[in-house]
Design brief:
By secondary structure, the chain is of the alpha+beta class. The chain has one domain. Helix content is about 25%, strand content about 15%. A 3-stranded antiparallel β-sheet has the order 1-3-2.
Amino acid sequence: MLNQDHDELIRLADVPRHPLLRRRGKLLSQAVVTRWTTHGVDGVRLESLKLGISRYTTDGAIRRFIDALNNDQPAELATAGR
């Protein structure tokens, strides 16, 4: 569950630039991030909330999403050279 009291909100438009989500230095498309919040991947959705006209998530929600997709192995930042 999103806990906006303890995590800083991240606009979904900024999620493709999140360091955990880069693949070989390339950014994700915004459509992929939106699909993660609406349809999910393998039954797992990226937690988000709508405030006004913008949708937000948190760093914690991104980490939980990645962990769930990786069978609960903690998400770590990719190291240089990977």
